[in-house]
Write a structure and sequence with these properties.
alpha/beta, five-stranded mixed β-sheet
Length: 304
């Protein structure tokens, strides 16, 4: 029986930190197995000049296709990605496992001076290349000047210090996972800066039909988290979500008076400079249907 397994991932500090989380979870569950991490350079890693969040730039598979190729060829046994970066449809022959418990999915503000966003002087320069984040920040601070910002976490933190930014927006999960939580000036309220669908969640991808890997990965899956992420990704799929689409979606589990689990799903969509927001509650067991209902509500608001 095979006892050594190779995990594929990008070589960034965040990607490696996320893969280490998965590796340690599996090592705890299978102490007699060996798990080895293999760093794979993707097209997106090679191109450090393109602004992937800008309009007209396609990012489909730029950070995954080399990893998926090695997975399909059997050079690695499974791969770890950030779920929010994954297309809604897998390449033929590959599937996702369920999702482990996710990290805090909120976006955060990091200020050069330690001052919160709403307390900054007039016309602050805020760094982000995300249309979603830009729309949310402009709603909070209409006077803000949005300046593109690209690079890994450490590159963005360096640019904050060295370049003309008063503050930058990042995903809190990445800072927490890389040991940089102390850099955070403030966590945004989810209803003010709505996270990207599946933000903070890990994606584990493996070959279809590989029952050994399926069973191994099942040991670290959190069923409730998986249902929430399914809803967020369904919402994204309906609105054709991506870096060029200013949408956000965040779900959480709440309980009714009978102590039954429900899904509270919050979504936003921006069109022509106007942001639409909605929140609904529905059955956790029918999380995809809840996402569809939320999307219909927002579409109704947009059409009014």
């Amino acid at each position: 029986m095979k006892t050594k397994f190779v995990i594929g991932t990008r070589g960034s500090l965040l990607a490696l930190a996320q893969t280490e989380i998965v590796k340690k979870l599996l090592e705890n569950n299978f102490p007699n197995f060996e798990f080895e991490i293999k760093k794979i350079v993707t097209t997106g890693d090679k191109d450090l000049s393109t602004n992937w969040g800008s309009k007209g730039v396609s990012i489909k598979n730029f950070f995954t296709k080399e990893i998926e190729k090695e997975l399909l060829n059997g050079e690695i046994d499974f791969a770890v990605h950030s779920m929010k970066d994954m297309p809604s449809i897998n390449p033929e022959g590959l599937i996702f496992s369920g999702v482990p418990k996710r990290e805090d999915n909120r976006d955060v503000f990091i200020s050069k001076t330690g001052i919160k966003l709403l307390d900054l002087p007039k016309n602050p320069v805020i760094g982000t290349s995300s249309l979603r984040r830009a729309e949310c920040i402009k709603n909070l601070r209409p006077d803000a000047i949005i300046k593109p910002l690209r690079g890994n976490i450490h590159t963005r933190l360096r640019k904050l210090l060295e370049e003309d930014y008063d503050g930058i927006i990042l995903a809190g999960a990445g800072l927490i996972r890389t040991g940089l939580k102390d850099k955070i000036t403030e966590f945004f309220n989810i209803e003010d800066v709505i996270p990207a669908p599946a933000q903070g969640a890990l994606c584990i991808q493996y070959r279809e039909g590989d029952t050994t890997i399926k069973n191994i990965l099942h040991s670290i899956v959190d069923i409730d988290t998986t249902k929430v992420i399914m809803a967020e990704r369904e919402f994204s799929k309906i609105f054709d979500g991506g870096c060029h689409t200013p949408i956000g979606c965040s779900g959480k589990i709440i309980y009714n008076e009978s102590d039954e689990k429900l899904l509270e799903l919050f979504g936003m969509y921006s069109l022509n400079g106007k942001t639409y927001k909605r929140k609904i509650v529905g059955s956790l067991e029918e999380s995809v249907l809840v996402a569809q209902q939320l999307a219909e509500c927002l579409k109704g608001d947009i059409d009014e």
